[in-house]
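A quick aside before the break. I want you to see a complete sequence-to-structure record at least once, exactly as it would be stored in a machine-readable document. Don't worry about memorizing anything.
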Amino acid sequence: MRKRKPPKRYHLPDPKFGDILVTKFVNQLMERGKKNVAYNVFYQAIAIVEKKANENGLEIWKKALNNVMPSVEVRSRRVGGATFQVPTEVRPDRKTSLGIKWLISYARRRNEKSMEERLAAEILAASRGEGAAVKKKDDTHRMADANKAFSHFRF
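That is the input. The structure line, written in tokens, reads:
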């Protein structure tokens, strides 16, 4: 067990929108330390979203992220030799990080030509409540609902 919790690290806001959440998203999107490339991919994806939806791209992205963030999940808990899937509430910081990870990972699996197009398509789908990332959230909620009987094992 640790003696103390490590200090929380804070992110600087991004240069274009001045939003900390955008920086977190770009850090997750980044590969091999190429942050500039990740920023360009994100900004171009937002521009594509704006063009397709004729609305503010950042607002659509935030709506998509809110549609993807889970509120409950299952955690494994061993009780008397048996392992139970116990539904638990998701902490706010974990909620955003899960939403970001799912949005990016399912965007990477899409079939569009460039990463900008893939990300834009996944953002648009998630903002409408469709897409693979939203399905993942629904599956997580469904699993937690199915295991509601074990909620008294919560730790």
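Two observations worth writing down. The mean pLDDT is 91. The helical segments are 20-29, 35-53, 57-68, 92-108, 115-127, 132-146. We'll return to this after the break.
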